[in-house]
Amino acid sequence: MKRRIIVGITGASGIVYALNLLRALIRQPLEVHLIMTRDGRKVAAHEMAQEGRMAAILEAHFGAERHPQARLVEHEADNYFAAPASGSFRHDGMVVLPCSMKTLAAVASGLAGNLLTRAADICLKERRPLVLVPRETPLSRLHLENMLRVTKAGGIILPPAPGFYHRPSTIDDLVNFVVARVLDHLGIPHDLLNEWGTINAPTDGIV
Ligand SMILES: Cc1cc2nc3c(=O)[nH]c(=O)nc-3n(C[C@H](O)[C@H](O)[C@H](O)COP(=O)(O)O)c2cc1C
C-alpha cells in the first residue's frame, strides 16, 4: 500500500514551513491528506499573498517536481465524513505545521472540534506518530503545560527552532532544517539536510 501522511495547517504564522514540507512530500510516491483550518487558510493567504486551494498553489509552483505517483487529497476541516476522521483509515503519521496555540490546546485536551483535531486525536488513540510544530513566542505556562500533556499522550512537540551548525545561508535553509526534522520523525527519506557527522562535522582525523 502507498504510504499515507496527514498534514494539518492551522492559523499560526509560518505557512512557508508547510509549503516546503508539501513540496518535499509530493516529490515522493506518497498519498498526502491535507487539512487546513479556516484560520489556517486565512493566515496562509495573507503570508503567501495568494488565495486558492493549496493543491493548485503547489501545482503552479512545484508541479514540475511532482512524482508521477504522488497524490494530494485536500479535505474540508468541517467534514467529519472524510477518511482521516476514522481510526480505520490506516496511515503512517500526521504532522500539524504550523500549529496554533488554539489547536495545541484542543489536541492536549482531546477536543476534536474539527477534522484536523479529530485526526490528531485518532493518532494518539491509535498510537500513530503525531508531530506538532507549535508557533508562538514567548510561551505561557498554559502553552508549556499543553505541550507536556501532548508529549505524555505520545505526541511529539517539534518547535520550529533551526540550528545554525549547518551554516545556513538562506531562509530556505532555515525552513528546511525544520522540515527535515519533521520528515525524520515521520520516517520519510529526504535530501534536505545532511546527517550531522556524514560530511560537515569536525573529525578527530579518523580515516
Ligand atoms: C497574521 C496572523 C498570525 C497569527 N500567528 C499565530 C501564531 O503564530 N501562533 C498562534 O498560536 N496563533 C496565531 N494567530 C492566531 C490564530 O490564527 C487564531 O488563534 C486561530 O483561531 C487559530 O485557529 P486554528 O488553530 O483553528 O487554525 C495568528 C493570527 C493572524 C491573523
Q: Note the total helix count.
A: 7
Derived structural class: alpha/beta
CATH superfamily: Flavin prenyltransferase-like
Strand line-up across the major sheet: 3-2-1-4-5-6
SSE ordering: EHEHHEEHHEHEH
Low-confidence stretches: none
State the CATH class: Alpha Beta
**Biggest sheet: strands, sense, closure?**
6 strands, parallel
What is the number of domains?
Answer: 1
Structural Rg: 17 Å
Heterogens:
flavin mononucleotide
Explain what the structure shows:
This protein has a single domain (4-186), classed as Flavin prenyltransferase-like (Rossmann fold). It is 38% helix and 15% strand. The chain has helices spanning 15-26, 38-48, 54-62, 101-108, 115-125, 141-152, 171-186; strands at 4-9, 31-36, 71-76, 94-99, 130-134, 156-157. Helix 1 packs across helix 7 (171-186). The termini are far apart. It binds flavin mononucleotide. Flavin mononucleotide binds next to helix 2 and helix 4.
Give a quick set of tags describing it.
single chain; alpha/beta; Rossmann fold; binds flavin mononucleotide
